[in-house]
Specification:
The complex is a heterodimer of chains A (356) and B (593).
Chain A lengths: L1 E2 L4 H11 L8 H14 L2 E4 L9 E9 L1 H6 L6 H13 L5 E4 L5 H13 L3 E5 L12 H4 L7 E4 L5 E4 L4 H14 L3 E6 L2 E2 H4 L4 E2 L1 H11 L6 H9 L2 E16 L2 E10 L7 E7 L1 E7 L2 E5 L3 E6 L16 E7 L8 H7 L13 H4 L4
Parallel strand pairs in A: 2-5, 3-4, 4-5
Antiparallel strand pairs in A: 1-2, 3-8, 3-9, 5-10, 6-7, 6-8, 11-12, 11-17, 12-13, 13-14, 14-15, 16-17
Helix pairs in contact in A: 1-5, 1-9, 2-5, 4-5, 9-10
Chain B lengths: L3 E7 L3 E7 L5 E8 L5 H19 L19 E7 L2 H8 L6 E8 L13 H7 E8 L14 H9 L5 E6 L7 H13 L4 E3 L8 H13 L1 H17 L5 E5 L4 E4 H6 L7 H14 L4 E6 L4 E7 L2 E2 L6 E3 L2 E3 L7 E3 L5 E4 L2 E6 L4 H4 L10 H7 L16 H12 L50 H28 L7 E4 L16 E2 L7 H8 L1 E11 L4 H19 L7 E10 L6 E10 L4
Parallel strand pairs in B: 1-4, 4-9, 5-6, 5-7, 7-8, 10-21, 11-19, 19-20
Antiparallel strand pairs in B: 1-2, 2-3, 9-10, 11-12, 12-13, 12-16, 14-15, 17-18, 21-23, 22-23
Helix pairs in contact in B: 1-7, 9-14, 11-13, 12-13
The chains are: A alpha+beta (356), B alpha/beta (593).
Protein name (chain A): DUF917 domain-containing protein
Pfam families (chain A): S-Me-THD_C (PF20906), S-Me-THD_N (PF06032)
InterPro entries (chain A): S-Me-THD-like_C, S-Me-THD_C_sf, S-Me-THD_N, S-Me-THD_N_sf
Chain lengths: 356, 593
């Protein structure tokens, strides 16, 4: 199958849902994707199984300050420079582009990058959701060495980093990003299709599309979305408090939702750090990272991003299981509740919500 | 003695005009239907208010020099302030728009999303003379992305047929040099008017660029408005200085408006908020402006409209210039009432012939309110115009009110039982529009009892409408319940006497023309939105930004000696090499004499 212009709105909606409150605004990426498809044609969506074992897959993402990304938008040629560097290093061009992070803007923008390069988009990503830090990717959890980062900035500089580990990878990439004006395109890990098996989360582009389409024309968008996600509805009510601070580049805080209708008297608090991480009711945790927690508009079932949370909004909170990879010991060590500073032992959302 | 001011506000249904005296009192007021060309309604409202003014100020029996336009009370009108929808209509209807050469400075950055991406095709076709992204622009820290390529600018402009040029440079709200450079080039070599994005919007390239292009497309409309207003004044022998209202509740001279027409979009709600503050004497309040078709809710903070944090869509185009934070709901005095609820359709200006109280055959929200004992000031007699059976049923309903429980349980807020002051049942409303009010004893329509059924429908409509208002007030109040609610607009009488979430409901005199009053009393303002270093140079940089805001207020028409900084906001930015803050400064002051 291919992704054409008409798929972009649904893809964007789905990516916003998978962003669990973070991952960045999908709007600019959507405009870039539509533009690139018009200019360069539809983007084939391929499965890992379709690719030969030695085919190169390049996971791409935009990194930097959101304020900057909104003003100094990507140049069209940035992916081309990354691809050229990949070919220089590996002696063959990329066979497919992959989203590093399906949740939020980095889920939609790769359609534009793949269209520009004339290569397929891999139906997979490195998170199955959104996470704030570079090492919180499936490739790291799967034990692939973090030994190659390629960055391309808006004026044409290309920087290749050969870090000794993930820590240095993050540190050096951040320094380059700041020097480049706090905005760059990054390939973190370049994989062969063979190495990608088991190290990426497959089917997530299709899933984002299906999620986005589930609410199209639905009489009950919230119910349709919940069914599609296999999610538990934690509460439906009104946002009564948003405590939000920006520290060290991250938005931290909590959102409180008070139940309405049949759920009057209940109160759910969602702890957030860019993404929604832990949902608590009456002192009991109802869902926690790496399971997905998304706040949606009760009427339209559209995702409400962390920066858009506002008192008085009528919202519902949905929670559903993460990819099994995140539930492994290494997965939980990388992106479980303790990786975000919560003194909690991970319990899957299915168990937390099994009895009411 | 030029001690009088005329304020005019063009709304969707009515064009209102007021004359204010030097002491701020309303000397005369008038309401006329808005016409499609806008200017016709403007003339009619102006004539009506001048006639009332002359009637009000002349001693009884005195002969008036009507045929001497320069004489009499008209010569005392020193200023005329107009809030108009010309610009909004031009964009919504794609009429009278200029062709704009759209120029962006930023290449090789930003090429992934070219100008006008996401615009509706017909608007783009009506507005764009061509688009180009040329080298130029700045990084967040003030370095150049590249030097501005003036050769490329010339090549682009040589190849387009345009009425105006819109220039948007990356990070121009912090570094405006490249935009200014191009403006000089265009003025000296092409003689075309130029819109510069740093004068129009804030950070967020695409939204600021969109607003800048719309601004450039509106130059012709701005000239038309200025011409029409000047002509209306001249025809009536008024030697008043004209001003236009802008969307932050302040005024600008017509000369300034000619350069910034996009700022007139959304001035109506801003005017009504400022007028509400003036008429009620309250600076912090929730303001509910009930019109014929819709109700606008806004919040006054320190006498000015609270501004929207979200991007604003105009004619299908996303922009990011300052707009009052307005929540509009489909409820007005002319909203049609049926068994299933209220509106969203309205009889609009036809209310004077179609509503039941005016002898028409359509049950409207006005009829529902009147049946519930809510009438406009001085219109208590309207109740007598409702069919007798409706009144009888309404009376029975009120007598039995305490025996029944009308409870609302929508997500909109606490359930409210019958409002003691007028016995009106109040209900919440579900998000899906379904009224969730319990129905009372009289709720079951009786076959053959047409009037009784209408009475039930009207009573239910009041409950639904109150629920809509309560829900909307709760959304706008952001959890604060200590502020009053100021009810304004021609349909304000449909609001209940008590509303949960506010300390009290204030109904100021002349509330039905609050928007025109708001236009008449407005100040002139200027603002700056930029990025400054957070280090040692910050205090000096902030002083410079303040001085720039004051200079812009003076340019808009303010008296230099009366300008004050009314708003200063600093937001630290993250992820940058050098610590930096985003600074927003607003200055405002009374108009220069």
């Amino acid at each position: 199958m291919s992704i054409d212009e008409s798929d972009i709105p649904a893809l964007a909606r789905g990516c916003a849902i998978l962003g669990t409150g973070g991952g960045g605004d999908v709007r600019t990426g959507s405009l870039a994707a539509v533009r690139a498809i018009r200019a360069y044609g539809e983007v084939p969506l391929v499965e890992l199984a379709d690719l030969p074992g030695d085919a190169l897959v390049v996971p791409l993402s935009g990194i930097g300050a959101p304020t900057v990304g909104h003003e100094m938008i990507h140049g069209e040629d940035e992916p081309e420079r990354v691809a050229e560097e990949v070919e220089r290093l590996f002696g063959r061009p990329p066979s497919a582009i992959m989203s590093s992070e399906i949740g939020g803007s980095n889920g939609v923008a790769p359609v534009a990058w793949a269209a520009r390069l004339g290569v397929p988009l891999l139906d997979a990503d490195g998170m199955g959701r959104a996470f704030p830090e570079v090492q919180m990717v499936s490739m790291y959890v799967a034990g692939l060495p973090a030994d190659l980062v390629i960055m391309s900035d808006i004026v044409g500089n290309v920087v290749t980093i050969r870090p000794i580990d993930g820590l240095w990878s993050e540190r050096l990439a951040r320094a380059v990003c700041v020097a480049a004006g706090s905005h760059a395109l990054m390939a973190d890990y370049v994989l062969t299709a063979g190495a990608a098996r088991g190290a990426v989360i497959e089917g997530t582009v299709t899933r984002a599309l299906e999620i986005g389409r589930a609410t199209e024309g639905a009489a009950d968008p919230l119910g349709a979305l919940r069914d599609r996600l296999g999610a538990v509805r934690l509460i439906t009510g009104k946002l009564t408090d948003v405590d939000r601070r920006t520290t060290g580049g991250f938005v931290r805080g909590a959102a409180t939702i008070e139940g309405a209708g049949d759920e009057r008297g209940r109160r759910l608090t969602v702890e957030l750090q860019n993404e929604n991480l832990v949902a608590v009711e009456d002192g009991a945790v109802r869902a926690m990272v790496p399971d997905l927690i998304t706040i949606v508009d009760t009427e339209t079932a559209a995702a409400v991003q962390t920066e858009s949370l506002r008192y008085g909004q009528r919202v519902s909170v949905l929670a559903w299981p993460c990819d099994p990879l995140w539930r492994t010991p290494k997965g939980l060590e990388t992106a479980g509740p303790r990786a975000f500073g919560y003194d909690l032992d991970y319990v899957p959302v299915e168990e937390l919500t099994a009895h009411g | 003695m030029a001690d009088l001011r005329i304020g005019i506000d063009v709304g969707g249904t009515n064009t209102d005009a007021v004359v204010l005296g030097a002491d701020g009192r309303v000397v005369a007021k008038a309401k006329r239907p808005t016409t499609r060309d806008v200017t016709g309604g403007l003339r009619a409202a102006m004539d009506a208010v001048l006639a009332e003014l002359e009637g009000a100020t002349d001693p009884p029996g005195a002969s008036r020099p009507r045929d001497e336009p320069g004489g009499g009370v008209r010569s005392r009108v020193g200023r005329v302030m107009l809030g108009t929808t010309h610009a909004t209509n031009a964009i919504l209807e794609r009429r009278n728009l200029g062709r704009v050469a759209v120029l962006r400075l930023g290449a090789p950055a930003t090429t992934a999303v070219p100008p006008l991406s996401g615009w509706p095709d017909d608007l783009r076709e009506a507005v764009s003379a061509g688009e180009a992204i040329v080298p130029g622009g700045h990084y967040v820290d003030g370095r150049e992305i590249s030097a501005p390529d003036l050769g490329a600018v010339r090549r682009f402009l040589d190849g387009v047929e345009a009425d105006a040029v819109a220039v948007t440079s990356v990070f121009s709200p912090a570094s405006d040099e490249h935009e200014r450079l191009v403006a000089e080039l265009v003025a000296s070599e092409y003689g075309l008017p130029v819109s510069l994005s740093h004068e129009i919007g804030t950070l967020g390239l695409l939204e600021r660029e969109n607003a800048t292009v719309l601004n450039a497309a509106l130059y012709g409309v701005a000239a038309h408005v200025t011409g029409a207003l000047t002509a209306v004044l001249a025809e009536r022998g008024l030697e008043a200085r004209p001003y236009l209202a802008q969307n932050d509740g302040t005024l600008m001279t017509v000369e300034h408006a000619a350069r910034l027409p996009v700022a007139t979009i959304g001035s109506g709600p801003a005017n009504s908020l400022r007028g509400a503050a003036f008429l009620s004497g309250v600076a912090d309040a929730v303001v509910v402006d009930v019109g014929g078709t819709s109700t606008d809710l806004g919040v006054l903070a320190g006498g000015f409209p609270r501004e929207s944090a979200a991007a604003v869509e105009i004619g299908g185009v996303l922009t990011n210039f300052r707009m009052p934070d307005i929540l509009a709901i489909a409820l007005g005095g002319g909203s049609v009432v049926r068994g299933r609820g209220v509106g969203p359709d309205s009889v609009g200006y036809r209310i004077a012939s179609e509503a039941l109280v005016f002898g028409g055959a359509t049950a409207t929200m006005t009829d529902a309110a009147v049946a519930a004992g809510r009438t406009p000031p001085g219109a208590a007699a309207w109740r007598g115009r409702l069919p007798a059976a409706v009144l009888a049923r309404a009376a029975a309903r009120q007598n039995g009110a305490d025996a029944r429980e009308w409870a609302g349980d929508g997500p909109g807020g606490p359930p409210v039982a019958g409002d003691g002051s007028d016995g009106t049942p109040v209900a919440g409303k579900g998000r899906d529009g379904t009224p969730v009010a319990g129905d009372g004893a009289g709720g079951t329509p009786v076959a053959g009892d047409g009037a009784g059924t209408i009475a039930d429908i009207l009573a239910k409509a009041v409950a639904v409408a109150d629920g809509m208002v309560i829900d909307a007030v709760d959304r706008m109040a952001l959890g604060r319940s200590d502020r009053p609610l100021v009810a304004v607009g021609g349909g304000a009488f449909i609001l209940p006497g008590r509303i949960p979430g506010v300390s009290r409901v204030i109904r100021p005199e002349h509330a039905e023309v609050a928007n025109a009053v708001g236009a008449a009393i407005a100040l002139a303002s200027g603002r700056v939105d930029t990025i400054l270093p957070a280090g040692d140079s910050r205090p000096k940089a902030i002083e410079r930004a303040k001085a720039e805001a004051v200079a812009r207020a003076v340019a808009a028409g303010a008296d230099p000696s009366g300008v004050e900084i009314v708003d200063l906001l600093e937001v630290p930015l993250s992820y940058l090499s050098e610590p930096a803050v985003r600074v927003h400064v607003k200055a405002a002051g009374p108009l220069a004499r």
